[in-house]
Design brief:
Largest sheet: none
Strand content: under 5%
CATH topology of the largest domain: Helix Hairpins
CATH architecture of the largest domain: Orthogonal Bundle
Distance between the termini: 142 Å
Radius of gyration: 65 Å
Order of helices and strands: HHHHH
Shape: rod-shaped
Length: 262
Amino acid sequence: MSIMKRMGLIFRAKATKALDKAEDPRETLDYSYQKQLELLQKVRRGVADVATSRKRLELQTNQLTQQQTKLHDQAQKALGAGREDLAREALSRRAALQQQVDSLQQQHAGLQGEEEKLTLASQRLQAKVESFRTRKESLKATYTAAEAQTKIGEAFSGISEEMSDVGLAVERAEDKTAQMQARAGAIDELIASGALDDHSSIGGRQDDIAIELERMSADTSVESELAAMKAELGGSEAPKQIEGDGQTARAEPQTKQQGEQA
């Protein structure tokens, strides 16, 4: 196959596909119905033209018949007046008119037969056109319903694809939410365990107030323990637990020494 033939075949194939895509069966059916109506109208005009011609022949035949009657009367009068020559002339004209009448009657019969045929054809064509119109409307309704179903199906298909994408987005959102919840829970556990105390700073250093309070608490504990040990060694009753900053614990031994000297 030559290149030109292949190109022509491809072009016709693409053109046919484009036409099929662009063609609307409903428009095609309406166009066909319109053409049938035009043909029916032509047949009806033909019937009307034949009927008009037939009527014209009838009028001409009637006129010739009236002339024949008039010539017959004139022949009788001429013969009664002894004018046989005039009577013969009138009868001769009447015979010529009769030939015309016979010809017109033959044409009339032919036109009448043609009119009957066209009338019958017009009736049959009209019945076919009416049948086609009914079928056309049924096909158009069916095609419209099928087209609507196809569009609904395509819409559902598009919604399904869209819902698939939405489902993936929802899954990603749920995963991120679960990660954030897990992270928040871990932070709460670290705070509760003391691993993330409020007084801890970024550099790992404690502020001055916290350090001073811890030092004072440690000094008080040491002083209390030291006083208890002295009391056990001296055999006296245990000193009261020192409260405060430790100054009372240091003052108690001095008071005991003064009592011994006295």
